[in-house]
Every structure is written in structure tokens, then in C-alpha cells.
């Protein structure tokens, strides 16, 4: 059975997301989402994107896109931010609630990103996020490091391919577990 994954690049258009020293979350997430999707496609997974250019869509619209594509999984990619620069660093993945494939997917992605060198801040429930609440399929929101952390930005820039590959490997590992 072929798996279909919707990859969402967080923010876009007029919505920059978090920013730090001229760096915009919407730009980092688009670059990362496109590479994650490319790696998934190269591994036989059917990929859809919520956006492939710098344009705005509401979080509800992003969830609708995943639903319209009848995706098996929805992966939203973001960068975290703290109340002040360099207060925190690490990766975290958000899910609507505990259990099932979504929690397995979140843990797999975090473990793979930890192998790249990011601190693993774990999996957290967030019931107020439209992309987690309004999708018909298991969904996760990956916080790929803190955009206001010099440590995470160095990893993100110097190990960009490895970061994308880690997210893709976490997805692939989860899909493979579902097929056995």
C-alpha cells in the first residue's frame, strides 16, 4: 500500500512566523519542507504540499488541503521561538493527543533529529492548533529547532540536508512499522 503524506511548510506570505536577526521562520520552513518532501518521494512515498512558494494559507486551509488529498499522514514543519534569544534550544514535536501512530511518528522524528545533534525536548500535546485538530489523518507539528537559538541555527544551516533527512527517516520508519 502506497502512503500519502502532506508536508506543510509553516507560515508564509505576510505571515513570517518567528524571526531572529533577519531570519524568517516562513523561509526556513519552506526550504526544509521541500527537501523533506523530495526525500520522501525518492523513497516511494506520495507527497503533497500545502505550499511550494511564499504564500499565505490559514492553518485551517492547510488542514483542509491534507484532508482533500486523502493523506495518510500530515507533517507540519515549523521553527520554535522563546521569550528571549538563546533561552532554549532543541527540537520538539507537537500532537493533538497521546497515542497511536501520531505519537509514534512524533517520537521517531525527534529521535532522528537527536541523532543529527539537536537536543530532544520531547513530544507535547497541543489541542489548540488547527493543523492538528482539523486534519482527518494523524498529524504532527515538528518544531525544527529554535529560530532564536544560535546553537540550533548553526545545526540547521550546517546540517540542513541531515535535518531534512532525519525528518524524512522518522516518517519512513513510522510508515514501515504500519506496513508490517
Automatic annotation (TrEMBL):
Protein's recorded name: N-acetylmuramoyl-L-alanine amidase
Family annotation (Pfam families): Amidase_3
GO MF, one example: N-acetylmuramoyl-L-alanine amidase activity
Lineage: Bacteria, Bacillati, Bacillota, Clostridia, Lachnospirales
Source organism (scientific name): Velocimicrobium porci
Domain MurNAc-LAA, first and last residues per copy: 63-172
SUPFAM superfamilies to which the protein is assigned, alphabetical: Zn-dependent exopeptidases
Keyword Hydrolase carried by entry: yes
Top-level taxon of the source organism: Bacteria
CC terms in the record's Gene Ontology section: outer membrane-bounded periplasmic space
